[in-house]
TrEMBL record:
Keyword Iron-sulfur included in the entry's annotation: no
Protein name according to UniProt: RNA polymerase sigma factor
SUPFAM superfamilies: Sigma2 domain of RNA polymerase sigma factors, Sigma3 and sigma4 domains of RNA polymerase sigma factors, TPR-like
GO molecular function: DNA binding; sigma factor activity
RNA polymerase sigma factor 70 region 4 type domain residues: 101-153
Span of domain RNA polymerase sigma-70 region: 7-70
GO BP terms, alphabetized: DNA-templated transcription initiation
InterPro entries xref list: DUF6596 (IPR046531), RNA_pol_sigma-70_dom (IPR014284), RNA_pol_sigma70_r2 (IPR007627), RNA_pol_sigma70_r4_t2 (IPR013249), RNA_pol_sigma_r2 (IPR013325), RNA_pol_sigma_r3/r4-like (IPR013324), TPR-like_helical_dom_sf (IPR011990), WH-like_DNA-bd_sf (IPR036388)
Family according to the record: Belongs to the sigma-70 factor family. ECF subfamily.
Residue ranges occupied by any DUF6596 domain in the UniProt entry: 171-270
Length: 396
């Protein structure tokens, strides 16, 4: 793995660990960035444990910085304490550094977008552009929210600590959102190659930790089921040459049957609770996709109707339209899609292009593909759309 790959894979874990050690997120970020700068100069090849090397180096850089800036006795004392405490005893119900950091960043004093944007940046290692894409908002908006969140944490003295067990449920919605978005960024990366396996696996791991921490929260179980069932299909999602393979064309023999079985069992647990929520319904949709040799589209559409009632967003409506096309035909789906407004979201014109192609409206489909290609930021997705457009014009 090259240094850029190591940065993406290890940044979040290193910042979380250093924040626990330092108690200061700004200092932790700077120390980790300094350590990576040192790595650029010193590494001929990565050490056996690059994350451990970064944490150790960052910790030492932080100690040096605290000593240099120690104009007050307290700063020097902090440096001495940090030097002596290699691994402070962890306390509280959240023992995983990254999961604990997620709960900390999801403090109710911060706005919902600030919570998730800050956590995605710190733990997922996502760039501002990637977070903006996940939220369908301008990059400047995300950047400002992150800066304001850090300032509010500093000025309000919000502690980086494990929340009490009683406080965990109030932060659950934001934590679920963060894990969901981290996985989505891994499953369809904003730029470069289609999939970032490190983010997918990390989101699944943290979702498992969360479900174990809060076994009585149906949405925590639902999110884990959703991620497992989606992750199960990842091996079939990329072809031999790295090309995107859509669900209908995937080789189902490549799907991970163990993850599917586990996901189905979690969905059944959710159904027995009869407390439906958005993640549980999405998990149920994915359970239908992974049940049997073909998708039961009427059942998927019924579940999307329920999901749209719970989460009436344009993105859910767009996904529902795909099921409408399979059940009622492309004309009905196109009528639903044409009512949606999702500026900058390439999947809207991409879906329109597919529906128009099925209706034989070639010229309009080509124009829709052109719009989708212009908006797509991921190289693999753009190549896929370009191939569809080329095939359409060649057939015409």
């Amino acid at each position: 793995m090259d240094l850029d790959g190591i940065y993406r894979a290890e940044y979040g874990r290193c910042v979380a660990t250093l924040t626990r050690l330092l108690g200061d997120i700004g200092l932790a970020e700077e120390a980790v960035q300094d350590a990576f700068a040192v790595a650029v100069q010193k590494w001929d090849e990565p050490p056996p444990n690059p994350g451990g090397w970064i944490v150790t180096t960052a910790r030492n850089r932080a100690i040096d910085r605290l000593r240099r800036e120690s104009t007050r006795e307290a700063r020097h004392a902090q440096a001495m304490l940090l030097q002596q405490a290699d691994e402070p005893q962890e306390v509280g119900p959240v023992r995983d550094d990254q999961l604990r950091m997620i709960f900390t960043c999801c403090h109710p004093a911060l706005s919902p977008l600030a919570r998730t944007a800050l956590t995605l940046r710190l733990l997922g290692g996502l760039e501002v552009a990637e977070i903006a894409r996940a939220y369908l908002v301008p990059e400047a908006t995300v950047f400002q929210r992150i800066v304001r969140a850090k300032k509010k944490i500093r000025d309000a003295g919000i502690p980086y600590r494990v929340p009490d067990a009683a406080d965990l449920p109030d932060r659950l919605a934001s934590v679920l959102t963060v894990l969901y978005l981290v996985f989505n960024e891994g499953y369809t990366s904003t730029s470069g190659q289609l999939v970032r396996t490190d983010l997918c696996l990390e989101a699944v791991r943290l979702a498992r930790e969360l479900a174990a921490l809060m076994p009585d929260e149906p949405e925590a179980i639902g999110l884990l089921a959703l991620l497992l069932l989606t992750e199960a299909r990842r091996p079939a999602r990329v072809g031999p040459s790295g090309e995107l393979v859509v669900l209908a064309e995937q080789d189902r023999s490549l799907w991970n049957r163990e993850l599917i079985a586990e996901g189905h069992e979690l969905v059944r647990r959710c159904l027995r609770r009869d407390q439906p929520g958005p993640y549980q319904v999405q998990a149920a949709i994915n359970a239908v996709h992974t049940d049997g040799p073909a998708t039961d589209w009427p059942q998927v559409l019924a579940l999307y109707d329920q999901l749209l009632h719970l989460t009436p967003t344009p993105v859910v409506a767009l996904n529902r339209a795909v099921a409408v096309a399979e059940v009622h035909g492309p004309a009905s789906a196109l009528a639903a899609v044409d009512e949606l407004d999702l500026p900058g979201y390439h999947l809207l014109p991409a879906t329109r292009a597919d529906l128009l192609t099925r209706l034989g409206r070639t010229a309009e489909a080509v124009a829709a593909y052109d719009e989708a290609i212009a908006l797509a930021t991921n190289d693999t997705e753009r190549t896929f759309l370009q191939a569809r457009r080329t095939r359409l014009t060649a057939d015409g």
